[in-house]
Amino acid sequence: MTLREALSQIPDPRARNRQYPLWGLLALILVAFLSRVDSLRGVERFARANPHLLPHLGLRKAPGHTAITLLLHRLDPEKLQAALLQVFPEADLGEVLVVDGKHLRGSGKGKSAQVKLVEVLALHLHTTLAQARAEGREDQALLELLDRLGAEGLKGKVVVGDAGYLYPELAGKVVQKRGAYLFVLKANQGELLEWALEVFKGMEERRLPGETEAVWNLVRDGEVWTYRVWASPYLPEEVRAFPGARQVVRMEREVRHKGTGEVRRTVSYALTSLGPEVAEARRLGELLLYRWEVENRSFWVRDVLLHEDACQVRGVGAQVLAALRAFLVSMLHRQGVREKKAALEAFSFNPLSALRFLGLYAV
């Protein structure tokens, strides 16, 4: 499905003043963001400065700031995300779904609180599947996202996330949908962490059948990163009572600078529903590292290159713009664009190329 067809499916919330087609206004924002525009005022100026783009977007004249702003605050973010996801061809979502939370820092001022989102990313597709606004705990927003994925949405998938998602209700929902989870274990689950520490004290003394260990090194930016991972299926009764729990994991990371010899060490723990017959220590360690993928592949690009944190739009409008930026990042990944900063600079010099990149160029 083309981007125009997908955007045209979104219900128009405007009762009057539809002189600008909904799909055209949203497409204009996408083209402007690709051209390094970072505000809605900037979108208005971009449209006035590039009148040759408007016919390709179904616009007879450049829309004003008010028309764009009112539309954003009336749109349903969930329906927008569902429409944008249809642009990508049907494909296997892969085994790993990574979840993480994000504050839209520019969306809060005075009594207006920052908008907080939870995002689900299909790892091997580098595609954002869904976002939800978190009013309280992030795990409640993730429960909403899991319901959106449907009954078959988690079958055969591993949900990887930080400690903010390690709650019995969420773990039970993942297992109920025939998925698996791997969540970081921190002090927010104090008793579980204490019992996990006891498990690994026992591993230091002797290794039992089914307990696994893995060590590997990576060299990056003049540093040697050494990972040591232990996994044990021998859980105390208090840990086995947690829905689906099968193994506890301990990861030590040592980073040594090759020039100065400086060494940094960190230790983290996790709880997973994956048994030892499915995932040994090396696999569990790799899954633990995947939880940074949302931050590195999506959030960083949106904040640094698309200036999401600097955006001053509030409320629902901020959530809508976050969905549009997440779609652009997914498009860049899916099209194999490695040098994203250089690509955005090229689009800013030639906005018609951004139009072609999105498949909106009308011959």
TrEMBL record:
One of its GO terms (molecular function) is DNA binding. Coiled coil: none annotated. Signal peptide: none annotated. Residues 5-86 form the H repeat-associated protein N-terminal domain. The keyword Ribonucleoprotein does not apply. GO terms for biological process: DNA transposition. Residues 95-332 form the Transposase IS4-like domain. Keywords: Membrane, Transmembrane, Transmembrane helix. The keyword NADP does not apply. It comes from the Bacteria. InterPro entries: ISAs1_transpos (IPR047647), Transposase_11 (IPR002559), Transposase_11-like (IPR051698), YbfD_N (IPR032806). The chain crosses the membrane at residues 20-37. This is Transposase family protein.
